[in-house]
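Re-run with default settings, no changes from the original entry. Doing this only to confirm the output is reproducible before filing.
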Amino acid sequence: MYDMSTRERALALVAQGRSLNSVSKETGISRAALRSWGQRLEPLGRSRSAPCPRCDGTPRPPEDPAAYSYLLGLYLGDGCISRFRGGTYFLRIACADAWPGLIDRCADAVRAARPADKVFRVQRQGCQDVTCYSNHWPCLFPQHGPGKKHDRAIVLAPWQREIVDAHPWDFLRGLIHSDGCRITNWTTRTIGGRPKRYEYPRYFFTNLSGDITRLFTSTLDAVGVAWKRAGSRNISIARKEAVALLDLHVGPKH
């Protein structure tokens, strides 16, 4: 009998779009087993089910709302939820290899959302997919739906809005860690007849979804961070005091 880790990693390869035949050849696992796991991930006689805070008789927020707020930002930026061939759902968040600290933090946030379900990482070219299987991801992220996020409306549920209002910096951190960056700009000024170079830090955020961008800017407004548009898709935070706030509460990727 294959253990849960082996099953999850094999399904993660299939989730990348690979055929059952190619995954079977690479892992030595039969195609019949892969098909079966797509409908029942847990080995027979073993239950990994855990209560979902949104499915209980009295729905409640996740146990760690700050971690959820961060994960929500990551999901809206670089995450997606898919269903494996008629079976369970899996959350996948793409994290660049250049930021190992971000990958660890993402995995911790996913684990906090579904502590009874295993979180694992799948290496791809230049990035890792932080992945976790659970039937309850659509409960935790009602923004899930067909097509790309920027092609459909993205609106927070009232309970999500309460979490973001209570933990705005975590939400901003998730959005910036997914679709943002901290860079150093420079400019020159003429002083005493000679050009002098000046450097200054700046944060950028870019997302194709107008709804997600508005969630970002409205949260910036709520915490008193000045911003401006830099083109049709970019949000720039460049004022010294605004950058200082983001450095204090968000920080660059690492």
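The chain is about 40% helix and 20% strand. The radius of gyration is 21 Å.
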